Amino acid sequence: MSAVSEVRPDDTDLKLQEEDRRELVEWTLACAERMLPLFLEVHPEDARPRAALDAAYSWLRGEMSIEEVRGWAFASHAAAREAGDPTAMAAARVCGQAAAVTHMAGHARQVPRYTAKAFPGDNARRDEELAWQRQNVPARFDHYVYEGD
User: What is the pTM of this model?
Assistant: First the structure.
């Protein structure tokens, strides 16, 4: 393990270095993959949140620029605005935020916030999903994501 991967990031730095953003993108994508089915249950024909995640994967492989990924993140947020269902809206927001981490690490802080909104009236399911996220965030980013702002 390299020294950079052991250093806790500066909570005030919303952008972070690319290596740090890459690690956070991997986590946010894992979170978003778990949330995407909630959107697709309501809007199976709307590919924008899936496309945002795929764009972030492409960025991780060096196949897409940050600007291109940002466009897909914006598209996922447009899908959220049009969703008409609070669960679907929150799930699309998680996807958009996950992709936006390629540009700015601070977007990772929104993933748990929108996840919490995806389960109105189902506190047990909400708590289960949030616990999964917290257990799987890279340890050095726990404070950054959950208490950094």
Answer: 0.93
Q: What is the C-alpha separation between 114 and 67, in angstroms, rounded?
A: 23
CA dist 69 and 58 (Å) reads: 8
Q: For residue 72, what are its two tokens?
A: 């897909």
Chain center to CA of 138: 14
Q: How far is CA 91 from CA 8, 10, 66, 148, in A?
A: 28, 28, 22, 22
Long-range CB contact pairs, 50-56, < 8 A, 24+: 50/95, 51/75, 51/76, 52/76, 52/95, 52/96, 52/98, 52/99, 53/29, 53/95, 53/98, 53/99, 55/99, 56/25, 56/28, 56/29, 56/98, 56/99, 56/101, 56/102
**Tens-level pLDDT at each residue, the chain (149 residues):** 343 467 899 888 899 999 999 999 999 999 999 999 999 999 999 999 999 999 999 999 999 999 999 999 999 999 999 999 999 999 999 999 999 999 999 999 999 999 999 999 999 999 999 999 999 999 999 999 999 76
